[in-house]
Design goal:
Layout: H1 2-8, H2 19-28, E1 36-40, H3 48-52, E2 59-64, H4 67-76, E3 83-87, E4 101-106, H5 115-124, E5 126-139, H6 146-150, H7 160-169, E6 172-179, H8 182-199, H9 205-224, E7 228-237
Parallel strand pairs: 1-2, 1-4, 2-3, 4-5
Antiparallel strand pairs: 5-7, 6-7
Helix pairs in contact: 1-9, 8-9
Keywords: Methyltransferase, Transferase
Domain Methyltransferase: 37-130
GO molecular function, one term: methyltransferase activity
C-alpha cells in the first residue's frame, strides 16, 4: 500500500472526472445559494473549485480517510473560508458537525460502500429532499467482454437500468444519469502516467510492481472504454 500511495502522491485527482460533471449535476439540483455541500471521498480536492461555483454563499466540507489527500485539498484552498477539509469516514457522514447536507457529491468513491449501502448511509446525512450526485462503475453494453469485467477486479458493475433501480430502492428519485466522458478518465490517467514515468528510474521491486499495475490499469481501460466506465447519477431523497 505504501508503494501505491507513492505512485498517487500529489496527483490532481484520484479518479475520473471533470468540471463539466459537477456543472451538469448542480445545474439540475435546486440548491440554495447558502447550501451546505459535502465532497465525500474528496481525494486531493480537484472537484472543489467547480462545486464552489454553485455555492455563492454556501459551505463545503471535504472528507477523505487518507490524511495526505486531505492535506493536499487543504493546501489548495487554504485561502478559501468556505472550504473545510477533514480526515473522516464517508460511512459516518451523519456524525459530521456540518450535517445534514443539502448535497453530497461523491466522485468514484461510493463503490467502496456499495450503491445500496452507501446511499443508505448518505440518506441519513441529507436534509429533507436533499440531493446526492455520484459516479459508479457500469457496463455500457448488454454483453461486456471478459476484459471489461476483469477491469473492475472483482467488483460487479451495474447496467444503467440496474443502477436506477438500486437508487430508487434506496429512497431516491433519479433526476438524471450521464456517462462520464473519456476526457474525464484521461484527466486521471495522464497525470498518473507522467508520475509513473518520473518514478521509473531507481524504483525498487515493490514500487516497480505498483508502477506496472497502475500503468496496466490505464492501458486496460483504453481497450475496454466502449464497454464500461462510470455513470454519473443525480438523485433526490424522497
Amino acid at each position: 500500500m505504501t508503494a501505491f500511495f507513492e505512485v498517487h502522491k500529489d496527483l490532481p485527482r484520484e479518479g475520473p472526472g471533470e468540471a463539466a460533471d459537477v456543472h451538469w449535476a448542480l445545474k439540475r439540483a435546486a440548491l440554495r445559494p447558502d447550501a451546505i455541500v459535502c465532497d465525500a471521498g474528496c481525494g486531493p480536492g480537484d472537484d472543489i473549485q467547480a462545486l464552489l461555483r454553485h455555492l455563492p454563499a454556501g459551505h463545503l466540507l471535504a472528507v477523505d480517510l487518507h490524511a495526505p489527500f486531505v492535506a493536499q485539498a487543504e493546501a489548495r484552498f487554504e485561502n478559501e473560508p468556505r472550504v473545510d477539509a477533514r480526515v473522516g469516514d464517508m460511512a459516518q457522514l451523519d456524525t459530521q458537525p456540518d450535517a445534514p447536507f443539502d448535497l453530497i457529491w461523491c466522485a468514484g468513491a461510493l463503490y467502496f460502500l456499495g450503491v445500496s449501502e452507501g446511499l443508505g448511509v448518505f440518506r441519513k446525512a441529507l436534509k429533507e429532499n436533499g440531493y446526492v450526485a455520484f459516479s459508479e462503475p457500469a457496463f455500457l453494453t448488454d454483453e461486456p467482454s471478459q476484459a471489461a469485467r476483469s477491469f473492475w477486479d472483482g467488483y460487479e458493475p451495474s447496467s444503467e437500468a440496474e443502477l436506477r433501480a438500486k437508487v430508487e430502492a434506496a429512497g431516491f428519485k433519479v433526476l438524471g444519469i450521464k456517462t462520464v466522458s473519456d476526457a474525464a478518465w484521461e484527466n486521471y490517467y495522464q497525470p498518473m502516467e507522467a508520475r509513473i514515468a518520473k518514478l521509473r528510474a531507481g524504483a525498487n521491486a515493490e514500487l516497480s510492481k505498483a508502477l506496472d499495475e497502475n500503468q496496466a490499469e490505464a492501458e486496460s481501460w483504453r481497450k475496454v472504454k466502449g464497454e464500461t466506465g462510470y455513470l454519473l447519477v443525480l438523485a433526490q431523497a424522497v
